[in-house]
């Protein structure tokens, strides 16, 4: 039964209770000759009543605010902070976020209800008093009908955009907050846009002064759910951003702020402030030698000449590097086309899209324009940021599977394609476990598929819960804590004598070797191959500016071990295969000696992500993780054989790949990116 039927029944009851001869009485006499009647079906029209009331769309004395934006703009953080400020202000509040996958570009809306009395309505907001938009290109046909007459539309846009909305003759107040523009002038990027908009929302809330606003910000950490933001809110840049948004809201008329004029240009005082911030930014980013030489042309020329000489020497040295030659040849062969075009909606710094582009560009190079590459991917972040709705950034045949059976679909493709075609199946670690039946079937039947598993240690499809690969003691954003030793998914390949390997995008030489090896097995030997790669993810609570450095830290702490497993056919004199002999090879040897150094490296890695940061300060938990990882390493050494292990270790110690990685992967990032 729909709401309209319930409203009609309620009107009829009020009619009947009035004691008068109403239209409801007439309708019942015509259509209900017994104690029952049919309404809205079988040709019976809905009754007309004397009552005209309707169910109110909003609760009285409650303010309704909708905030709209996209993934990557910090709306989830804004939701938490604004809800906390409402609580400190003594307001009842109900805040709900609606979003798809946690990825850049996906639509996000916040439904925030607040007032001086208990919120009784938990439904979505239908009519809002205030709409806050992080983009000035919102679809007005969709958004504005939700804004109540006389409401407020707060837009992140340049003041020049106000004329466009004035011409639309809107029955609302339009307030322009140039948040992105100010953030870029203050900090060189738009990372603090959400905090500037938070300040504007606080001004709209009616907070009396900057002093009062700072008092609320200082007390946010006392709220149990917001203690994790203490570090963020204590930074000068964060507090300045909130205050800037608060000031931008203080206007004489819509669009004119105390800091920015009609053309969006800061006034003299603000310009001077920006100049000082720019000077600080330059001094913090530039190397000390270059910064000191800015006003000395001769010194700057000497530094420039020395840098050019170093550049030429590096070019000469790397021209003999086999990996560099492969990469150059690969990109020349791509000829400005790639299996994955530009325009994906992955988070900036996402490790998964880095894996996709690296692996599939090399696939295309190995195919050498012979045969097609078919991709079957299980539902996950990869399917969202590369193929939303009917749009796709894939330029090769791509199948998006919603029910975790990508490996089974790949098996069907593998048995119905040309001999030069390559079939690839992709799944995350969460999706792999959900689709385990199809995975095992494909491995058992030895279907010639290149299986790729991308691991971020959580179940992204349903909000980031712990999964089978989550390390013991790690706690996800949803509060799920892993209790058992994480599962090594390559064990499923070993179960069916399938060649497999663990690789990483920070060791490109090793990764390309394994892709080439797997490509040969699938295409020439018509057998399956499984490749597993870990990647850094926002769901780990990680600053993705540290994406690649974190992967290097994971290698140094043995959190990820690079190794490969070959299954060698053992035949009799007649050439019949009797069994497969397993041969394990460790492909990377971290220079980590002793328990204390090992734990130090683990602490460095865990400190980069919120899911594991508490382990850093818990000696017992850290010791537990250490023994799990040490046990894994000992098993790998034992299976490799100690003679082969020490020979490979000596060879690795003097390898050019170690020098290359140390040169290319830096653990330090600019302070402004932290």
CATH class descriptor of the largest domain: Alpha Beta
CA radius of gyration? 31 Å
What's the name of the CATH homologous superfamily of the largest domain?
Answer: Thiamin diphosphate (ThDP)-binding fold, Pyr/PP domains
Assigned CATH architecture of the largest domain: 3-Layer(aba) Sandwich
| Terminal CA distance | 53 Å
Number of domains: 4
Unreliable residue stretches: 100-105, 137-141, 252-265
Find the CATH topology of the largest domain.
Rossmann fold
Shape category:
globular
How many beta strands in the DSSP annotation? 16
**SS strand fraction:** 15-25%
The overall pLDDT, averaged over residues, is 81
Mind summarizing the main beta sheet? 8 strands, mixed
Range of helix content? 40-55%
Strand order of the largest sheet: 10-9-11-12-14-13-15-16
How many separate helices? 27
Overview of this protein structure:
This protein is α/β, with parallel strands linked by helices and 674 residues long. It folds into four domains: 1-55, no CATH class; 62-284, Pyruvate-ferredoxin Oxidoreductase, domain 3 (3-Layer(aba) Sandwich), CATH 3.40.920.10; 288-313, no CATH class; 321-589, Rossmann fold (3-Layer(aba) Sandwich). The protein is built from 27 helices and 16 strands. The strands form three sheets. The protein has an eight-stranded mixed β-sheet with strand order 10-9-11-12-14-13-15-16, with helices on both faces. It has a six-stranded mixed β-sheet with strand order 2-3-1-4-5-6. It has a two-stranded antiparallel sheet with strand order 7-8. Helix 21 links the parallel strand 13 (499-503) and strand 14 (529-534). The protein is globular.
């Amino acid at each position: 039964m729909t709401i309209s039927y319930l409203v009609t029944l309620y009107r009829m009851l009020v009619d009947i209770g009035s004691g008068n001869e109403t239209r409801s009485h007439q309708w019942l006499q015509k259509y209900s000759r017994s104690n029952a009647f049919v309404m809205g079906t079988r040709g019976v029209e809905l009754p007309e009543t004397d009552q005209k009331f309707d169910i109110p769309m909003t609760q009285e004395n409650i303010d309704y605010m909708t905030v709209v934006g996209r993934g990557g703009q910090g709306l989830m953080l804004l939701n938490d902070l604004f809800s906390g400020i409402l609580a400190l202000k003594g307001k009842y509040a109900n805040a709900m976020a609606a979003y798809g996958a946690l990825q850049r570009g996906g639509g996000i809306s916040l439904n925030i209800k607040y007032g001086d009395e208990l919120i009784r309505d938990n439904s979505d907001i239908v009519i809002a008093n205030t709409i806050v938009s992080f983009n000035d290109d919102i679809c007005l046909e969709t958004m504005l009908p939700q804004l109540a007459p006389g409401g407020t539309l707060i837009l992140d846009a340049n003041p020049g955009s106000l004329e466009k909305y004035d011409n639309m003759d809107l029955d609302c107040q339009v307030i322009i907050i140039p948040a992105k523009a100010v953030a870029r002038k203050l900090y060189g990027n738009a990372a603090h846009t959400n905090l500037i908009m938070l300040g504007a929302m606080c001004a709209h809330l009616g907070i009396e002064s900057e002093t009062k606003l700072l008092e609320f910000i200082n007390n946010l950490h006392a709220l149990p759910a917001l203690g994790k933001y203490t570090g963020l809110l204590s930074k000068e840049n964060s507090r300045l951003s909130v205050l800037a948004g608060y000031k931008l809201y203080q206007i004489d008329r819509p669009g004119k702020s105390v800091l920015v004029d009609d053309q969006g240009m800061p006034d003299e005082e603000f310009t001077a402030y920006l100049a000082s911030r720019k000077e600080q930014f330059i001094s913090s980013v530039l190397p000390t030698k270059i910064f000191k030489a800015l006003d000395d042309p001769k010194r700057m020329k000497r530094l420039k000449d020395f840098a050019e000489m170093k550049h030429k020497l590096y070019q000469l040295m790397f021209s003999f590097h086999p990996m560099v030659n492969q990469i150059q040849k690969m990109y020349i062969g791509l000829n400005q086309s790639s299996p994955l075009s530009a325009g994906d909606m992955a988070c900036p710094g996402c490790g998964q899209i880095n894996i996709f582009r690296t692996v599939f560009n090399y696939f295309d190079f190995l195919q050498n324009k012979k045969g097609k590459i078919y991709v079957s991917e299980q539902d996950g972040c990869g399917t969202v940021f590369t193929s939303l709705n009917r749009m796709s950034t894939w330029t090769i045949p791509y199948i998006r599977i919603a029910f975790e059976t990508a490996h089974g679909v790949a098996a069907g493709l593998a048995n119905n394609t040309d001999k030069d075609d390559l079939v690839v199946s992709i799944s995350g670690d969460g999706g792999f476990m959900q689709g385990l039946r199809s995975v095992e079937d494909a491995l058992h039947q030895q279907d010639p598929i290149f299986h790729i598993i991308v691991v971020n240690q959580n179940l992204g499809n349903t909000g980031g819960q712990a999964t089978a690969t989550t390390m013991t003691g790690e706690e996800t954003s949803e509060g799920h804590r892993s209790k058992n030793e994480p599962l090594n998914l390559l064990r499923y390949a070993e179960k069916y004598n399938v060649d497999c390997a663990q690789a990483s995008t920070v060791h490109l030489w090793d990764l390309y070797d394994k892709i080439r090896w797997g490509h040969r097995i699938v295409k020439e030997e018509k057998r399956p191959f499984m490749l597993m790669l870990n990647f850094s993810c926002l769901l780990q609570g990680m600053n993705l500016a540290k994406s690649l450095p974190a992967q290097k830290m994971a290698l140094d702490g043995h959190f990820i071990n690079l190794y490969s497993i070959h299954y060698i056919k053992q035949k009799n004199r007649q050439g019949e295969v009797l069994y497969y002999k397993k041969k394990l090879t460790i492909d990377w040897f971290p220079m980590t000696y002793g328990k204390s150094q090992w734990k130090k490296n683990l602490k460095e890695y865990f400190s980069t992500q919120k899911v594991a940061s508490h382990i850093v300060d818990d000696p017992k938990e850290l010791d537990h993780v250490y023994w799990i990882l040490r046990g894994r390493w000992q098993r790998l050494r034992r299976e490799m054989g100690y003679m082969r292990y020490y020979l490979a270790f000596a060879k690795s110690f003097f390898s050019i790949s170690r020098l290359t990685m140390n040169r290319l992967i830096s653990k330090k990032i600019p302070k402004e990116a932290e």
